[in-house]
Amino acid sequence: MTEETRLSSYLAGARDTVPMIVGAAPFGIIFGALVAAGPMALWHGQLMSATVFAGSSQFIALGLVAGHAGLLVIWLTTFIVNVRHMLYAANLLPHVAHLPARWRWLLAVLLTDETFAVMTGYYRRHPQAPLGHWYFLGSALSMYVNWNIWTVVGLLFGAAFPQVQSLGLDFAMAATFITIVVPLLGQLPRLATAVAAGALAYLWHGLPYNLGLLAAVAAGIVVGMALMRVRARDGAAQEDAA
Amino acid sequence: MNYALMIAGMAAVTIAIRTAIFVLGNRIAFSPLLRQALDFVPVAVLSAIVVPMVVAPNSNGLEITWRNPQLVAAIVAVALCALTRHQLLTIVAAMAVFLGWKFGVLG
Questions:
Q1: ipTM, 2 dp
Q2: Mean pLDDT of residues grouped by 10 in chain A (242 residues)?
Q3: CA-based nearest distance A117→chain B, Å
Q4: Taking the model in full, what pTM does it have?
Q5: 8 A C-beta contact, residue B51 and residue B62
Q6: Nearest to B70 by CA among A200, A56, A172
Q7: Which site among B2, B64, B71, B91 would you substitute to test the A interface, given the most A Cβ atoms closer than 10 Å to its Cβ?
Q8: B17 → closest Cβ in A79, A105, A217
Q9: Are A112 and A148 in contact (CB under 8 A)?
């Protein structure tokens, strides 16, 4: 077995993230192109990819900007959409708790869905990895650099072909969201959440500051959780009867 | 809208979320109820954004009609995604249906 070095761990992390990078690239391009077609300046799009670095919330912000939402709604929605990263961090914490603060800051800021997936697999294979943080950095930094490169490509593409706006490119955003939601709808409670949140968001879209969106999200979550409880209780009742 | 301010706020929120656990350690705990609620967040948020975009694309009341290219293409996208589970294929096909419907069928 070859000796593990910082560099080899770093490179292994980057290598194992390549499939995720390939998967994210088209979305970076679509994001950039949507920014170019919308009301924001090109540098705003790059600033968002560089500082927020969270694809789904970046797309959602564009959707909210198009819907004339207020700042507070956009920030609250960003929180709701990104709060899952706390669960990722809690999951990975045992493997990074021993690191110096600057390492924990760096890895935390760069933590994404993709790197969480890669790190979960890595720590399962290597529960005791003294250079695991270099692997982590390799995965996280390669995601970061690539997301920003593909954002530039999308911005330049969108700026070079401004007519894409009149084509209705914003439908690409709706299509992207549909492909994220549909695979999650296999369970009845989630399907109920989708129907309730979608219908209520339409009905309440006239509320001030786009608060109807947040209210619809909250109501959808309540509907899904209530249904899950009812089903769990019925399931338990059936088991009792049997 | 001040977009730079909007982005700065989004970045601050996201960085706070990402760093809280790694920096503060185990002092933050999630109740099972909250974990359960978080599980429903993606479906709820994305549906709440997509449905109004598709059923009322011009913010001008419901357009549940074959003359609404967003609606036609969204139905195709849902069906195709459910059948193939292929994200990029679905997006490309849905865009093709959308543009074909808007400029081809409806002209």
A1: 0.87
A2: 82 90 86 92 97 93 89 93 87 91 96 89 88 96 97 94 69 82 92 97 82 90 95 78 61
A3: 15
A4: 0.78
A5: no
A6: A172
A7: B91
A8: A79
A9: no
